[in-house]
Amino acid sequence: MTRAGRLARRAVLPILAVVSALLLGAVVIILTDFENLARFGTDPLGAVGAAIGGVATGYGSMLEGAFGDPSRIAAAIQSGAEKDIATAIRPLTETLVAAGPLIFTGLGVAISFRTGMFNIGGEGQMIVGALGATTTVIALAGNAPAGVILVAGVVVGTIGGGLWGFVPGFLKARTGAHEVITTIMLNYVAAQVVLFALRSEFLQAPGLGAPISKVLTPIADVPLIIDLPAIRLDYSFVVALVMAGLVSLLLFRTTKGFELRAAGFNLTAARYAGMSAGGSMMLAMFLAGALAGMGGSFMVIGTVGQLTNDLSLGIGFNAIALALLAGLRPGGVVLAALLFGALTTGGKNMGIVSGIPYDLLFFVQALVIMFVAAPGLVRAIYRLRAPKADAEVVA
Amino acid sequence: MTVASAATHAEGLAARRALRAARIRAIAFAAIGLLCFSAASSTLETAALFRFWVDRQGGASEKLETTVGVLWIVAGIAAGLVGALQFVRGAAFPWRRWLLVLLLPFVAAILAALLDGKAANLTGVLDGTLELAAPITLGALAGILSERSGMLNIALEGKMLMGACVAAITGSVALNATGDPLVGIVVGISAAMLSGALLGLLLGWLGIRHRVDQIIAGTVINIGAVGITNFLFLRILGRDTTLNTPPTIEPMRLPLLAEVPVLGPIFFTSKPYVYVAIALVLFLTYMIYRTRWGLRLRASGEKPAAAGTVGVNVLAIRYRALMYAGVLAGLAGSYLSLSSAGSFQMGMSAGRGFIALAAMIFGAWHPIGAFGAALVFGFADASQALLSILGVQVPPQLLNSVPYIVTIVVVAGVVGRVRGPAAAGQPYEQG
C-alpha cells in the first residue's frame, strides 16, 4: 500500500470518531430543546424540521465561527481594505490562536502517554506556567528590554510548568502514587495557588477586586504574524509547530525517546533492559509540564495579555482528547489541535449566535476519546449501520 | 549462587531495608515530639477554650478549658511515646494505626494554636465532620466495591456530578408536579442512583466488553459528565430556575438518642445521609468479609483466573459491582445538590470523587478504614468553616487546598504503602 493510502486508512477511524461524537452531540441538542420536543405530538413533521434546523443553525454557526465566510474573505481581499480583511479572516486566525496552546499541551500529553503516564494535569501545569510567566514579566517591568522580558517570562513559565508536572512523575516513580489522582489534585491546588497569587498586591490589577493580574501587554508582548487590527495570531504558533518537530525528533530519533516509549510500552521489559523506568517517567512528566507551561506563558503574555484564574479553562482536558485522537503522534497532534481549535472558536460562536452552550464540546470530546479508545465500537456502528448514519440525526 | 540462596539473600536485604525505614520513622516521631515542646514553650499562657452544646445548638454548653501549650505538650509526649514504641518494636510496629491515634492531639493543638485564644464551639465542627464525611464515605464504598471486583473506578467524580445534576432536576420536577417534598426527595435520590448505575454499566461495557483501558474509560465519564451537566445547567437550568429548586433534605433528630447530653447534638441530629453512610459501612463490611458473595467479589479482584476456574462468573460479578458502585456514587452526588447546596451548581463535585478514592486507599480498601479516612477529610473541611467564621488569619485558598494536598500525600503512600486488590485494572478474558 502506498504511503498516502496508509495515511488515509489511519485517518478513517479518527474522522469517524469525531463525526460520531458530533452526531451524538446533535442528539443532545435536540433532546434538550423542550419547546420543540413538545411540538412532536401536534406537528411531528414541523418538529422534525425544526430539530434538524436547530442542529444546522448550531453547527452552522460553529463552522462559520471557526473558518469565516469564504465569499466574504475573497471580497475583502479584492477590495484591499485593511479593516475588511481583518474582520473577514479573523475567525480563521482565531482558530489558529486557539490551536496554539492546544498544540503545546497536546504534545505534552502525547509525551507523557507514550511513557505510560496518564497525565490529566495539563490544566494545572499550564496555569502554573502562566503564573510563573506573569510574575516574571511584572517583576522585570522597566528593568530590561521587552524582548528579554518576553524570553525570561516564557523560560520561567516553562520551567514552572515542568516542575508542576515533575511532581506526579516523581511520586509515581518513587511511591507508585497513581498519576491520574495526583495530577487532578494538583490541578485543584494550582487553581488555588493562582487565586491566592492573584490576590497579592504585586500581581493583581489595582482597583478591580477581581482575581485578574495587571495587563502585561505594555511590558512585553509576543510579535504578531499578521499585523492587522483585531488579529491576535502571533509567533507563538510558529514556536508550537517547531516544538512539534522537536518532540517528534526526541521521541523517534533519539535514544532517550526510545527509552521513554519503552517505559510506556512495557515497563518490566524496559527495566530488564537496564533502562531507568523511573527516570523516564520523571523526564516525561517534566517535559509534559514544561510544554503545557510554555503554552500557558505564551497565552498569558501574547493573546490574552493578563492572567485570570480561568485562563486554562478546559485546554488541559481538550489536550487529552486530541492527543488520543492523534494516535499520540506529534504531527497528528498538530492536525487534531487545528480541529479542536476550530471546535473551540466555533463553539464559542455557536454559544453567541444560537445559544447552544459551548460546554457541549466537553461532552463531544469525551465521546471522541471513547470512540478512539474503543475502535470496535466505531467499526460496529459503521459496518452495520453505515447507510443509516443520516437517520441518526433525526432520531 | 543458587536460586534458593538468591531468594534468601533478597529477603535479608528487604528485612534490613525495612528495619532501616523503621529506625528513620522512630527518629522522625521523636523529632516531631521535640518540635511540639518548642512550640509549647511560647504558648503556655495562650488559652484554649473548646465548647460543646449540651442538648441543642445554642443552648447550655459544656466547657473544656486549657492552654495551647498544654495541648502541644500532650501531642509532644504522644509523638515521643509512639517514636519509642516504633524504635523498640522495629519493622513489625503497626505505625499506620498509631499515626491515626496521634492525629487527635495534634489536630487539637493545631486548631487551638490557630484560634489563638478565641473560644470555639466544637459541636458544630464534629457534627459538620460527620456530615461532610458522608458523601466521601459513600464514594469510598463505591470505590471499594468496584476495585475489590477488579475494576478501577476513576469515574466516581463524574458519577457524583451526574448524580447531583439528575437529583436536582428530577427532584424539582417531582416537587413541582406533586407539591410534596418527600416525593421530590425520593424521586431525586432514586434518579440519581439510577444515573450512577447506568454510568457504572457504561464503564463496565467499555472496560470489559471493549477492553478500553479502565483509566481512559473513567476519564471519558468524568469529562463527559462535566460537559453534559454544564450544558444542561446553561441551556435549561439557567433559564428555568424552577427546574433547579429541588426539595432539600433537613437534619433528622433520632428519637431518644438525640436527647443524650453533649453526644446527642453531635451524632444523632445529623442529615439522614450520615446514618445511611454508617449503616452501609457496617453492612458492606459484613457482606464483603462474611458472605459467599463477598468471597467471590474479592476473588474476582485478587485472582480472577482462580475464581473463574471454580465456576465463578467473574465478568458478571464485575458488572454488578460497578452497578452497585454507581448507585452509591449517585447517592453521594444527590447529597451535594439535595442536602448540601439545595440546588445544582456547575462542577459542584469539586474533586470529591478523587478524595473518596484517596479515602479508600488510606482505609486499605476496607469499609471501616475508609470511613475513618473520610472522617479525617470531613474534619479538615469542617474546621475550615470554623476558622473562616472566627476570622482566623489563614488565606482561604490555602485552607481550600488542604484536602487536595492530603489526598496527594495519602495516594503517594507517605503514610505507609498499602496493597490494593491484585487484579484491579487488568482485563479478564472469560473462557
Features:
heterodimer; A: 395 residues; mainly alpha; ABC transporter involved in vitamin B12 uptake, BtuC; 77% helix; globular; disordered C terminus; B: mainly alpha; 15 helices; 3 strands; 71% helix
As a whole number of angstroms, the C-alpha radius of gyration of chain B is 24 Å
CATH architectural arrangement of the largest domain in chain B? Orthogonal Bundle
Spatial order of strands in the largest sheet of chain B: 2-1-3
Q: Please count the helical segments of chain B.
A: 15
Helix/strand order of chain A, N-terminal first? HHHHHHHHHHHHHHHHH
Give a quick account of the main beta sheet of chain A: strands, pairing sense, barrel closure.
none
Q: Greatest chain-chain interface? A: A-B, 45 and 44 residues
Shape of chain A: globular
Residue share in helix of chain B = over 70%
- The strand count of chain B comes to 3
What is the count of helical runs of chain A? Answer: 17
Tally of structural domains of chain B: 2
> What is the rounded distance between the termini of chain B?
40 Å
Question: Helix/strand/pairing class of chain B, anyone?
Answer: mainly alpha
- Counted beta strands of chain A: 0
CATH architecture annotation name of chain A: Orthogonal Bundle
Overall tally of domains of chain A: 1
Briefly say what this structure is.
Chain A is an all-alpha fold and 395 residues long. Helices cover 77% and strands 0% of the residues of chain A.
Topology, please?
The complex is a heterodimer of chains A (395) and B (431).
Chain A: H1 3-31, H2 34-42, H3 44-67, H4 70-79, H5 82-114, H6 122-140, H7 146-175, H8 179-198, H9 236-253, H10 255-265, H11 267-272, H12 277-303, H13 315-325, H14 330-354, H15 360-373, H16 375-385, H17 389-394
Helix pairs in contact in A: 1-15, 2-3, 3-5, 3-14, 4-5, 5-9, 5-12, 5-13, 5-14, 6-7, 6-8, 6-12, 6-13, 7-8, 7-12, 9-10, 9-14, 10-12, 13-14, 13-15
Chain B: H1 3-43, E1 47-53, E2 61-67, H2 68-89, H3 95-115, E3 119-121, H4 122-148, H5 156-178, H6 181-209, H7 214-237, H8 263-267, H9 272-290, H10 292-302, H11 304-309, H12 314-340, H13 352-362, H14 367-389, H15 396-411
Parallel strand pairs in B: 1-3
Antiparallel strand pairs in B: 1-2
